[in-house]
Amino acid sequence: MSAGTDVDALIARMSWTEKLAQLQISYRPRLEDAAELVRAGIGAVFWPRSAEATNELQRVAVEETPHGIPLLIGLDVVHGQRTIFPIPLAQAASFDPAVAETDGRVSAAEAASGGVTWTFAPMIDVSRDPRWGRVAEGFGEDTLLNAVFGAAKVRGYQGSHLADPGSILACAKHYVAYGAAEGGRDYNTVDMSDYRLRNVYLEPFRAAVEAGAGTVMASFNTVAGRPVHAHRQLLTDVLKEEWGFAGAVVGDASGVVNLLAHGIAEDLHDALVQSLSAGLDVEMGGHVVAPDGTSSLTPDDLTVERVDDAVRRVLRLKAALGLFDDPYVDPAAELTAPTAATRAAALEAAERCPVLLKNDGTLPLPERPLRVLLTGPYADSTDHLGAWVQSFGEPAGSLADALRVERPDLELTVLPGASFDGADPGRQAEVTRAAAGSDVVLVAVGEPSHLTGEATSRADLRLPGDQEALVHAVADTGVPFAVVLANGRPLVTSAWIHRAPAVLEAWHLGTEAGPAIARILTGAVNPAGRLPMSFPRSAGQVPVHYDHENTGRPATTGGRMQPLVHDIGLEGPGNVEEWFTSKYRDLPLGPQFAFGHGLSYTTFGYGAPVLSRTEVSADELRGGATVEVSIQVTNTGQRAGDEVVQLYVRDPVASLAQPVRRLRGFRRLRLEPGESATVTLALGWRDLGFWTGRGNEFVVEPGRFELHVGPRLDATQQCDLVVT
Ligand code: BGC
Predict the structure, then answer these.
(1) 651-699: pLDDT as tens digits
(2) How far is Cα 626 from Cα 623, in angstroms, rounded to an integer?
(3) Terminal C-alpha separation, the chain
(4) Domain 341-521 is classified in which CATH homologous superfamily?
(5) Which of these CATH numbers, 1.10.3720.10, 2.60.40.10, 2.40.160.60, 2.40.37.10, describes 604-723?
(6) What is the pLDDT of residues 499-515, one digit of tens each?
(7) Cβ neighbours of 32 (radius 10 Å)
(8) Which of 107, 170, 201, 550 is deepest in the core (most CB within 10 A)?
């Protein structure tokens, strides 16, 4: 059966339980056990770990089941199958969607060659809370970045045709608002207004659906008391009916069973009925039909139309993948290791993600022969792959080894000096002695991969173990030093950041992490990443994100730090108006490093922004008109480098309170020393309006809009646009 064949005719021949069996995915570690599930008619299984094993399961499905329906073979290929790319949060820091698209293409080719047909990625949960470990898997705090990078990933995985050999199904996850778990604690409750849900959390999913994502995964959390796995309004009304999503909605692992713990279902039967009726199409876990082929579900529980609709969605995806024509892969062509080309692609990606947070000129390392002390747990560690990497992902080398290759002239001393658990303190004395004989010290610290990703919420966002003490010990020596951070979330750096002359946020960069970091430290590559999430000053300040509302009492720096004596009223000590503003008494205003921040080894100058027009009507915008913002950028330094132009919009007066800034466009461009270029970014209907939260009402309200364009939030130039 090809993509054009009659899925409905096939459905008409299927029994009730044969249909239900298509609506589940399950995992069995032993091939024989997986084959049993397939014989019982299951529609999808997790990857059995080789092309040969996949072929065997597909053979059982095609030859030993009544209708010969091939399988979907799923796997979490999140940032690489064999060749591991930077974690998605790092990819977002590149501000270059091509990085995500390339990861998607390379990953899809590697995974598809082994028989995988479906990845559970991209994760596009807007994440404003770095306590949540899963921030590593997504694209950060901004809605537009998640939308743009998510769509790029979908294009990368799915290619131009799903039936092409190097294409697999994408899965936009986790729908929806999972990143807003209270307290940043994984799987926790979510409760929010439709206004915020629409404007912040749903938008990336709308973009993924527009980009053609074949599947969407329901999230574990509740939204306003209803677990998403059983949320008809979100799964059916918004996703399928309003947006016209024609693919399949898959549940998360045991997400249907979890309805019992949520306390909204009596038993598994009830949970299945509630989920499938709400619009879930595929259950992850294999609870719809028992291994003996029986199911508790009857047409009294679920309408035949609903079940047929779900089966149709699944079978159409199988047809689009070309599985009815040929479900097999060539074991001889299975890609089981990176190639020179995929390594080069991963290296280029890894070089684009690090963010230079601070630099007094210590970086890049000078070219003359140099005595370098490399210390910290990441000096010699190979733990650079990050969260969600399978055991067969290609390991990374260490930074020490990469530095030796990149700069053989360095006289390199390597001492760990600290550890992630601080189990072996007292090693700093050795580091202090070695530092005394060095020209420069590199302190490579961070978070181990296993402290990032699913179920790794942290209440303390500082460097774990005795790493902060190591930074202080190095600072005490007075020897110039730079800190390299390898981690999967924004960290709290306030205890030591003021002492560090230079800090490079390198993230978990994947297989090619070592060479990428080494090339940036030595200046072979000029860093140009920008933060996709704010770095808080304290975990107590979280969530802190740039696109907050102004509040009725926006924060000001003034106000005296002493208690106000209320009985003397407004004439009390200090500046009363500034005292009563929205801030923490014990923290300076704002984050440590804001969204969009990132330095370079060169400098850039900006011309004045120019608008293609200064007035436009809402009707014109609705009809597709755009306003172009152009700005000239010049590399005013001595080195070639990339700049990231950022365009923010503010609607200062609207019927609902608006964020103080919203990123509406960005462009990364490369400039040689002295070179100039003009960047033009377009604004349209979607960029200037907002969802009211009343159903699917989206409005652009007439009035003056502030456009802020420049290299970062606190260095933009403003020009105004009037919408009539
Ligand atoms: C995660 C999903 C993942 C699934 C399958 C779950 O625990 O939440 O993101 O796709 O497992 O591995």
Answers:
(1) 999 999 999 999 999 999 999 999 999 999 999 999 999 999 999 999 9
(2) 9
(3) 54
(4) Glycoside hydrolase family 3 C-terminal domain (3.40.50.1700)
(5) 2.60.40.10
(6) 999 999 999 999 999 99
(7) 8
(8) 170
Tokens of 393: 């992902």
Question: Cα separation of 584 and 692, whole Å?
Answer: 30
Q: How far does residue 284's CA lie from ligand 1's centre (Å)?
A: 9
Cβ-based neighbours of 602, under 8 Å, separated by 6 or more: 526, 635, 636, 637, 638, 639, 640, 641, 673
Best residue for ligand 1 mutational test, from 252, 256, 282, 391 (most atoms within 8 Å of Cβ): 252
The superfamily in CATH containing domain 7-326 is Glycoside hydrolase, family 3, N-terminal domain (3.20.20.300)
| 157 contacts 104 by C-beta, under 8 angstroms | yes
Nearest to 71 by CA among 60, 83, 79: 60
Asked whether 76 lines ligand 1 (CB < 6 A), one says: yes
Ligand 1 within 6 A of 254 CB?
A: no
User: Is there a contact between 120 and 173 (Cβ–Cβ < 8 Å)?
Assistant: yes
- Please report the pLDDT score of residue 426 as a whole number: 78
CA angle 303, 307, 313 (to 5 degrees): 145
Q: How many percent of the chain have pLDDT more than 70?
A: 97
Q: Is the pTM of this model over 0.85?
A: yes
User: Ligand 1: which of 76, 77, 119 to mutate, most ligand atoms within 8 Å of CB?
Assistant: 76
Q: Where are the alpha helices (DSSP H) in 353-436?
A: 399-406, 428-436
3-state DSSP assignment of residue 411: strand
Checking if the pLDDT of 634 tops 90, the result is yes
Confidence at residue 126, expressed as pLDDT on a 0 to 100 scale: 98
pLDDT at 595: 98
454 Cβ inside 6 Å of ligand 1: yes
CA pair distance 509, 386, nearest whole angstrom? 7
Percent of the chain residues topping a pLDDT of 90: 94
Cα 35 to ligand 1 centroid, rounded to whole Å: 22
User: In DSSP terms, which residues pair with 659 in a beta bridge?
Assistant: 549
Closest ligand 1 atom, CA of 120?
10
Q: Read out DSSP for 605-643?
A: EE---EES-SEE-HHHHHTT--EEEEEEEEE-SSS-EEE
pLDDT of residue 561: 46
pLDDT at 571: 47
Lowest mean pLDDT, pick from 137-146, 462-471, 576-585: 576-585
Distances (CA, A) of 332 to 39, 72, 511, 570: 26, 21, 24, 81
**Are the CB atoms for 86 and 79 separated by under 8 Å?**
yes
The identity of residue 433, as a single letter, is R
Given this model, what pLDDT does residue 572 score?
A: 46
SS3 444: strand
Q: What is the pLDDT of residue 57?
A: 98
State the catalytic residues.
252
Cα 172 to ligand 1 centre (Å): 12
- Domain positions in the chain are 7-326, 341-521, 554-589, 604-723
